């Protein structure tokens, strides 16, 4: 982790990245810029640990952060990936609980840290921001409920196809139709909730069905409609 002398301005970032902070007025954005701190993190760095005490939350200015819980025998269960403009750790701040997951840097990142009291001051002073934060919390809980349903009712093949579509919706494709996020097979299995060997086999099946192409860790999505059919999405 490396501290920055130059702090990105919130009023520009909020609108460029379509973040929740776009609902703040100019004075509140100035307060946010003054109160926050920004740091550079290298790939693999841990921002905070599950079960640790938190005294603020983070906004992703650049990069990707992996959020996961640790299960049986230390196995990761990836919850989601946070990208530019998204906030992490805020639910633990709101509830006053210990961190409910671990945040690890997937790609070199620039994160801004906002103290707990700053968040509560913005909530008290801006009803629209408070409502949008509530909506964001509800969306995350809805995604968690949908994942529980998928684990119980969908096959591993269906879940893998759905995960590829979720990554497509979250990060998009480049000009050559490659996903703009690169994951290891273990990370994919930790999202799907299965063994790494199963993910490797099922990716090969999707390749044989001409739904995807595999180039090392990079995945090219050839047939989105076909993947949706596989995923019952």
Describe the structure.
The chain is of the alpha+beta class and 233 residues long. The chain is 45% helix and 24% strand. It has two domains: 2-150, Jelly Rolls (Sandwich); 154-231, Winged helix-like DNA-binding domain superfamily/Winged helix DNA-binding domain (Arc Repressor Mutant, subunit A), CATH 1.10.10. It has helices at 10-16, 26-35, 90-95, 116-125, 127-153, 156-171, 185-192, 196-208, 224-231; strands spanning 2-3, 37-41, 46-48, 56-70, 76-82, 87-88, 102-115, 212-215, 218-221. The longest helix has 27 residues, at 127-153. The N and C termini lie far apart (39 Å).
Give the topology, please:
Blueprint: E1 2-3, H1 10-16, H2 26-35, E2 37-41, E3 46-48, E4 56-70, E5 76-82, E6 87-88, H3 90-95, E7 102-115, H4 116-125, H5 127-153, H6 156-171, H7 185-192, H8 196-208, E8 212-215, E9 218-221, H9 224-231
Antiparallel strand pairs: 1-2, 2-7, 3-7, 4-5, 4-6, 4-7, 8-9
Helix pairs in contact: 6-7, 6-8, 6-9, 7-8
Question: Which key terms come to mind for this protein?
Answer:
single chain; 233 residues; alpha+beta; Jelly Rolls; Arc Repressor Mutant, subunit A; two-stranded antiparallel ribbon; 24% strand; globular
């Amino acid at each position: 982790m490396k501290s920055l002398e130059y702090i990105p301005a919130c009023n520009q970032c909020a609108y460029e990245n379509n973040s929740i902070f776009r609902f703040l007025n100019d004075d509140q954005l100035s307060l946010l810029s003054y109160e926050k701190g920004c740091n550079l993190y290298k790939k693999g760095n841990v921002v905070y640990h599950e079960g640790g005490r938190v005294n603020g939350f983070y906004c992703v200015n650049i990069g990707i952060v992996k959020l996961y819980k640790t299960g049986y025998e230390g196995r990761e269960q990836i919850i989601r990936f946070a990208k530019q403009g998204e906030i992490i750790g805020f639910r633990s701040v709101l509830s006053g609980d210990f961190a409910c997951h671990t945040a690890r840097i997937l790609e070199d990142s620039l994160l801004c840290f906002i103290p707990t009291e700053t968040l509560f001051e913005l909530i008290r002073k801006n009803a629209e921001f408070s409502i949008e934060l509530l909506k964001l919390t509800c969306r995350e809980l809805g995604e968690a409920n949908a994942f529980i349903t998928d684990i119980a009712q969908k096959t591993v093949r269906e879940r893998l196809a759905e995960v590829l579509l979720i990554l497509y919706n979250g990060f998009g494709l480049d000009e050559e139709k490659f996903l703009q996020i690169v994951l290891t097979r273990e990370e994919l299995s930790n999202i799907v909730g299965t063994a790494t060997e199963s993910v490797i086999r099922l990716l090969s099946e999707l390749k044989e069905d001409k739904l995807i192409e595999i180039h090392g860790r990079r995945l090219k999505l050839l047939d989105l409609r076909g993947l949706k059919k596989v995923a019952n999405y």
